[in-house]
Amino acid sequence: MTRQHGQIGQPVAVAEGLSKTFGTVTAVDSVSFEVRPGRIVGLLGRNGAGKTTTLRMLLGLTAPSAGRATVFGHPYDELPHAAHRVGVSMDGIGALPGVSGRRDLTIWAKTLGLSSRRVDEVLERVGLGDRADRKIKGYSTGMRQRHALASALLADPELLVLDEPATGLDPDGIRWLRTFLRSLADEGRTVLISSHLLAEVEQTVDDVLIIQRSLRYSGTLAELTDNGAVRLEDRFFSLVGNGNESGVGAHA
Amino acid sequence: MWTGRAWWSMALIGVLMGALAGSGYVTEADKDIAKGATTIEGVTDQVVRSWFMMLLFSALLGAIFVSREYQSGAIGRSVLLSGGRGRLLTAKLLVGLAMGVVFGALTVALAAASPSVFLPQAQLEPAWTHETTLTLIGVFVVTTLGAPWGVLLGWIIRNQAATVATLLGLTLFVDEALLRLAPAVGKFTLTIAMSSVYRDGKPELLSVPAASLTIAAWLVAAGIAARALFHKRDVL
């Protein structure tokens, strides 16, 4: 399947001055970026850099202290058919307790008005077709990641927001994920993926957002790495430093 | 509707408690009748009334229905897929009400049958009166409303253990203690107002219309609080 976007060039997701404070702690500080259609975009940062909080604000799960986030031109809460246009796999969003993988997806599919055949399709696609009748609590970390990806794909969305999908995957799983993400982009989908696994991301993404509470870089991977002349890891640490934010500016 | 094992385990515990209370009351009934402390009609009413405790398990089921989604993180997906928080809250409340109706129907069936089951064990014949019917209706109403009450508390507290502890504490200790220590205040608590509806008969209780208004006020207040907090707080 190759998608035709009605608004070629229009950003799929936009963050404008997003900030989030928890008490006296600033988790995200005035982050602005755009996600272009049909791209795999890596949201990179250390643990605790604000990646997940930024994604949650984008999806309306967390209210920003300041700023605004839109998906397909609307705040997620106001986006028509949001659940069919945006697929989400996110840290903190669990499966229904005590059910099998197939049962969990079937319940969500019914919520979305989808057939059980679609459940079988996504299970096959993520490689869980033969293990879907096991209870999720017995799944390995890698299987949970695949199950979460299956959940995100259920409604055949245009945009996938994936929070640390490579975490817990073994080398085979990581290689599978890389191919999987590229196949999603080849179908015309946009993928926004957060990660702290720089070497892995370097082989997967088209565009890069680097945050360490504030935005440190937004642009193409090729531009950041001088078309591969410089390693992403080196550029990353030159941008985020040792965690001290002073003196490090954001690229437009 | 997905409630896992919570549905049948709550129902089972409630049924066991109701049966124990009903049969226990009948054990002493013949002596009380002989002393003139009650009548066969009163015993019949009391056996039916003893099923009021199903309201606690109905409330617990409602609370678990919501709070376990917070515990598992499934609430995040519910919010993302529901098309808005207000819509999700309404849907959960309606499901909670439906759960309450199912629990209430089960309770009514058992409560209606229990005089015929328990009284003959004490060589007594049940005497069903208009008062018994009103008591049965009251038991149904409070059991039905228990589930949405639990749902709303679950939304407000969002933690399964804390919600269950709050429900148990309010129902078993706080409301009852308030009634004893300060009856003028205690009669306006939710579970004590509910005891007016299932015709507990204590003289300090509210009338049924006043109790009904009090129950409605509690549910509306909890609904407003749940809605405001759900819209204001971060989901994850």
Automatic annotation (TrEMBL), chain A:
A family per Pfam: ABC_tran
GO molecular function, one term: ATP hydrolysis activity
SUPFAM superfamilies reported in the protein's UniProt record: P-loop containing nucleoside triphosphate hydrolases (SSF52540)
Domain of life (superkingdom): Bacteria
Keywords carried by this UniProt record: ATP-binding, Nucleotide-binding, Transport
The ABC transporter domain, residue ranges: 13-237
Keyword Transferase part of the UniProt annotation: no
Gene3D superfamilies: P-loop containing nucleotide triphosphate hydrolases
Similarity-based family: Belongs to the ABC transporter superfamily.
Name of the molecule in the record: ABC transporter
